[in-house]
Amino acid sequence: MKIQKTSLCLLIVLGLLVSQINAQTHDYCDILKKGLMFYKANRAGRLPDDDIPWRGNSVLTDASPGSSPNANGDGNLSGGYFDAGDGVKFGLPMAYSMTMLGWSFIQYESNIATCGLTDLYLETIKYGTDYLIAAHIGENEMVAQVGDGNLDHSWWGPPELMKMERPVFTVNAANPGTEIACESAAALAAASIAFKKSNPEYAATCLEHAKQLQSFGDTYRGVYSDVITNAQAFYKSWSGYKDDLVWGGAWLAKATGDDTYLTKAKADYASFGIGAASQGNSHDWDNKGPGAILLLHQLTGDATYKNDFESWLKYWKPGGGITYTPGGLAWIRQWGPARYAATSAFLSAVYGGDDNIAFTKAQINYLLGDNPNKQSFVVGYGDKSPINPHHRAAHHSLTNDINNPVNNLYLLTGALVGGPGSDDSYVDDRSDYIKNEVATDYNAGFVGALAALVDPSSTSAPTTAPTEAPTTAPTEAPTTAPTEAPTTAPTEAPTTAPTEAPTTAPTEAPTTAPTEAPTEAPTEAPTEAPTEAPTEAP
């Protein structure tokens, strides 16, 4: 048995070496720009530019109960990002995506500047953090979701034409949601560091909201998806909130330099058993444990976090326990394996070291087409790349039909699709949401890994002292809408924003099979047993 395992490891390593020998030369700056442009394609609200000419204004009346519209008549929650190929704003994965983008900007700011992408990177982060600030409607209250996933997923068409009701779901002291509060705190704390030089007033605003949200999540503890039952079929909190408490606390320690946050994060880490719970798992929108380990290692240099992270990373390497496809992709589960591999590649790069950078490069290059099928998993990149990702706006059906037109009308440039099967197989089929879903969290770790690879010598992760808090007094969240609207005039969203899920059934029956992946067992048997439940829903 030991001989068989050793032979298998050697075959995997040889496969990786062959892949590297046959590897293409990739322009990581170009791909990084494409990856950021995907976020522009998923923007909601009144768009400030027409960089994605086939997208227009949408959901302009999204608003929290009792709020007033801005000068353009738009609701306070009209902005932000749609989650995936749908029209729901799920707060937890959106906040996670902004945290990861913030982290990669902080870690690789010089690489991003080398690519000439500083402004685009910060713009991408701010479009999400502006929404998180707007969603923080009270010191101990936050909007966690806009839109009913069931209603939304029963219709297939571009968001500019959506007409279904869009309920607003909140968490508060009486009905707490620690995950969304602490993840938003992490995102805004990271943003406060990212914007400190270029926009100190905005940085201070982000930090003030981050402090309140972390306090809210810690003081009033509860699983957010127990409160917002509509989220359970889409983004149920499988890991619970303990990892989020440590993650948010560590980010506030980094942003403020306040030892109180660091001391508490370390104590919670130990009492919650985050190190052990993270082993053999992925870092993702649900489980922040691996990232929390790495961040605490960066902040302290303690051997505990070093050992825990190296144990976690070892699992992802050949022979460590994770499944590898024959072509060399670290494949943890069937639902969105590209997303998990890319995020692990990012964390590996942040930790640094030649072996870890080699892992990062091998995983990312596989996704860019260095694999047996020469298949790129990034829309618009490579000779053989997806053209039919599972995305309503890019497909642009006007008949509520996932099969009409046959091919997507628009190219969703830069989107990372779900990825291959465990045997490297892949079919560019929009209806196969397991392999062709795209989402803001899919791209979040991916663009970070790309930023690292722009200059691999920049990937060492020295133990750094926490960043000091901005000295400027906090300002209020921005209240103005973007100054320019897109050139098209799509249909506006409904005028009401109910606070509870609508009780009526959708007006049109869905014409297709479910469109996103469930959070529990998938509807089709996986080819290999996943170590954890998949993450999205039909």
Automatic annotation (TrEMBL):
Enzyme Commission number(s): 3.2.1.4
One BP annotation, GO: cellulose catabolic process
Annotated catalysed reactions: Endohydrolysis of (1->4)-beta-D-glucosidic linkages in cellulose, lichenin and cereal beta-D-glucans
Bias-annotated ranges (Low complexity): 461-538
Active-site residues, Swiss-Prot/TrEMBL: H390, D428, E437
GO MF term set: cellulase activity
Residue ranges occupied by any Glycoside hydrolase family domain in the UniProt entry: 28-450
Residues in the signal sequence: 1-23
Keywords linked to the UniProt accession: Carbohydrate metabolism, Cellulose degradation, Glycosidase, Hydrolase, Polysaccharide degradation, Signal
Residues covered by region (Disordered): 457-538
InterPro entries noted in UniProt: 6-hairpin_glycosidase_sf, 6hp_glycosidase-like_sf, Glyco_hydro_9, Glyco_hydro_9_Asp/Glu_AS, Glyco_hydro_9_His_AS
A Pfam family recorded for this sequence: Glyco_hydro_9
SUPFAM superfamilies xrefs: Six-hairpin glycosidases
Top-level lineage group: Eukaryota
PANTHER family, per the entry: ENDO-1,4-BETA-GLUCANASE (PTHR22298)
Record-stated family: Belongs to the glycosyl hydrolase 9 (cellulase E) family.
Protein name, as recorded: Endoglucanase
Organism listed in the record: Polysphondylium violaceum
